[in-house]
Write a structure and sequence with these properties.
Oligomer: heterodimer
Order of helices and strands of chain A: EEEHEEHEHHHEHEHEEHHHHEE
CATH class of one domain in chain B: Alpha Beta
Distance between the termini of chain B: 32 Å
CATH architecture of one domain in chain B: 3-Layer(aba) Sandwich
Strand content of chain B: 15-25%
Radius of gyration of chain B: 21 Å
Strand content of chain A: 15-25%
Largest sheet of chain A: 8 strands, mixed
Largest interface: A-B, 44 and 46 residues
Strand order of the largest sheet of chain B: 6-7-8-3-9-10-12-11
Radius of gyration of chain A: 21 Å
Shape of chain B: globular
Number of strands of chain A: 12
Shape of chain A: globular
Chain lengths: ~325, ~325
């Protein structure tokens, strides 16, 4: 990328969900700290990967950016507008530029609408295409995602998982968006079908100049598709770097463990690999550890980690990390 | 090494509203003592069904094992009645299931559930069985196992439950442990914990393992031998290093090409396999992979290939075409 124009800026984003106890007279007993101070930029035309384990807040981050969840605090700037402050018609108008592809292609398509109606719905709502122009646009979109344009009259149950995900992609493209949040778009699919969808997303990015936020837990796939990768753990981004930099120079102990946990499809490499095995489980986001979030499972943890929250600092160009010791270790 | 289990010509069908689904269409393989066999394939390829058929775990109806033989200790598992197979299942051959969230009884303690197979198969008393359960829970790395036997499944995390499942599978010291996608529901760091655990236990206890998975990455570092399944058939089988360094079936080649590799510094476009897996509503009369295969020739549309010896010792593939030359063998 030569011109690095910031398309979306996330600043100190927080999303807390209340925990309620009791029936009718429910009391609020605490908060799930799903997203707890996340900041990053997405450049025009790039793919930013957001990776982390279940419950780390990666999907919530994606949904909060689109204002599907309203942030507890923080700002989301898209082309200069603060989405977190927009409401009603203005927000809806902005949403044209920001679309989403969902994880489960079986749950995200209305079974009682035809494929044509599903793809046309965004155009209907925003009034961009009507009548025969709309019909033509639906057929164009179906062809664009590699489906037969005659499929417009069929229902979702007639399609396989991979084909349904293509329909989801076509729907996301209907309003010619600039940014698409892909929330685990391939994890419900079979291995041979995953590559089809990833290749489709790459082709579309090239031909339409799209920008992606690609959320996934599969680090090898994220590394394949992304230009830069943000690693999340328990509501915060612990490390952000370019795809090769993150792999060759992981600075956060969690990233290091995550990288070493990914199995390689190569017995010769696996034979020689030394794994960093993390002890224990991820702590509850209702009551995250003090100081550094990762300290309870970290092999380098010292006293300071329990007391002081590590700053998200820059260690080289385009490489940020939230760890007290990441510089000294090298 | 002696052969522990020999399966030949296993066929299983399911009656559905759409017709008979031919889930397994003649699977044959052998498992040696202490060997780890990986079975790889996508959903619906018959990898789990073939294992469950062997152990009489296919509900009938709708499922039915229609042909085949599974010799274990000189007896055919498929010919055993319920009484006989129950003596094998859980004691000599045990299964670890995929989903640690739904495979437990929520109202029984972890200790009771772990000890249950031992009590049933040896007739041991409760106290003795619980002690043995503690020993095995300890072995699989449950901290403080002595106290935790009195807890209930909901008090355990996913990774811990999967450890308990493994303890349950091991408590009778089986000769074969069948692991049916035991890490699919888990996060990668927890998956790494479980894989290291299974490797350690295998070296300590010396049992044979059949590891069913859709992830070619997991078994690369685990298996001695790999069977790749497609459309209810084993389409390639080879020692683990051969499968990865010299795949001979177009499906295996495609599957490996569609996986991104962590260590690739340069961008490489993934090679996807076009089309969809077969529905198996008919027993394939020709190669089930033919509609998606870029090497397919006339013969592939007429005859279904069986496993044939290809380059490399113990390496078999069911394909008429040599993918290296693009010509028929």
């Amino acid at each position: 990328m030569t011109d690095k124009q910031v398309l979306l800026r996330v600043e100190n984003l927080y999303k807390h969900f209340p925990i309620k106890k009791g029936g009718i007279f429910s009391r609020q007993t605490g908060y799930i700290h799903a997203v707890d101070g996340v900041s990053f930029d997405i450049y025009n035309g790039e793919t930013l990967g957001l990776v982390g384990e279940s419950g780390c807040g990666k999907s919530t981050t994606g949904r909060t950016i689109l204002q599907l969840h309203r942030p507890t605090a923080g700002n989301v700037f898209f082309e200069g507008d603060d989405l977190s402050k927009l409401k009603g018609g203005k927000l809806r108008h902005k949403r044209r530029d920001l679309q989403m592809i969902f994880q489960d292609p079986y749950a995200s398509l209305n079974p009682r609408m035809t494929v044509g109606q599903i793809i046309a719905e965004p155009m209907e709502i925003h009034g961009t295409y009507k009548g025969s122009a709309q019909l033509k646009r639906v057929q164009e979109l179906l062809q664009l995602v590699g489906l037969n344009s005659a499929f417009a009259n069929r229902y979702p149950h007639e399609f396989s998982g991979g084909q349904r995900q293509r329909i989801g992609v076509a729907r996301a493209l209907a309003l010619e968006p600039k940014l698409i949040v892909c929330d685990e778009p391939i994890s419900a699919l079979d291995v041979s079908i995953q590559a089809q969808i990833v290749n489709l997303l790459e082709d579309l990015q090239e031909s339409l100049g799209l920008t992606y936020l690609f959320i996934a837990h599969d680090l090898s796939m994220v590394r394949h598709i992304s230009d830069r990768i943000a690693v999340m753990y328990l509501g915060i981004v612990v490390e952000l770097a370019g795809r090769n930099e993150l792999y060759t120079n992981p600075a956060h102990p969690y990233t290091q463990a995550l990288l070493s946990a990914v199995p390689f499809p190569d017995p010769f490499v696996e034979e020689k690999r030394q794994r960093i095995i993390l002890e224990g489980d991820v702590p509850s986001p209702a009551n995250p550890p003090s100081g550094c979030r990762f300290r309870t499972r970290c092999r380098y943890a010292k006293e300071i980690c329990a007391v002081e929250k590590p700053e998200f600092r820059q260690i080289s160009e385009e490489h940020y990390v939230a760890c007290h010791f990441s510089l000294e270790k090298k | 090494m002696a052969e522990l289990l020999k399966v030949s010509g296993l066929e299983t069908q399911f009656r559905t509203r759409e017709g008979i689904v031919h889930a397994v269409n003649g699977v044959s393989f052998a498992l040696k003592e202490g060997e780890t066999l990986g079975i790889v394939g996508e959903s619906g390829c018959g990898k789990s069904v073939s294992m469950m058929s062997m152990l009489g775990l296919i509900p009938n109806p709708p499922g039915k094992v229609v042909a085949g033989e599974a010799l274990f200790e000189g007896a055919d598992l498929l010919k055993m009645n319920n009484e006989q197979i129950r003596k094998v299942r859980g004691s000599k051959i045990s299964v670890v299931f995929q989903d640690p969230m739904t495979s437990f009884n929520p109202v029984l303690t972890i200790g009771d559930q772990t000890a249950e197979p031992f009590r049933i198969h040896t007739g041991a008393g409760k106290k003795e069985a619980i002690e043995r359960a503690i020993k095995y829970l300890d072995l699989v790395g449950i901290p403080n196992a002595k106290d935790r036997v009195n807890e209930y499944p909901h008090q355990f995390s996913g990774g811990m439950r999967q450890r308990v499942m493994i303890a349950m599978g091991l408590i009778c010291e089986p000769q074969i442990l069948i692991a049916d996608e035991p890490t699919t529901a888990l996060d990668v760091t927890i998956q790494a914990q479980i894989i290291e655990l299974v490797k350690r236990l295998r070296d300590e206890l010396g049992m044979a393992i059949i590891w069913i998975t859709h992830d070619l990455g997991i078994i690369a570092g685990l298996a001695d031998r790999v069977n790749v399944m497609y459309g209810g058939y084993i389409i390639e089988t080879a020692p683990v290093k051969d499968i990865y360094s010299n795949p001979q079936h177009p499906y295996t080649i495609g599957l490996l090409g569609s996986l991104p590799r962590m260590d690739e510094m340069e961008y490489r476009r993934l090679t996807s396999i076009d089309g969809l897996p077969p529905t198996l509503l008919e027993k394939p009369s020709y190669c089930p992979f033919e509609p998606r295969c870029k090497y397919a020739v006339e013969r592939c549309r007429k005859e279904n290939p069986t496993l044939m010896q290809v380059e490399g010792e113990g390496h078999f593939a069911a394909c008429w075409v040599n993918p290296k030359t693009g010509k028929e063998y």
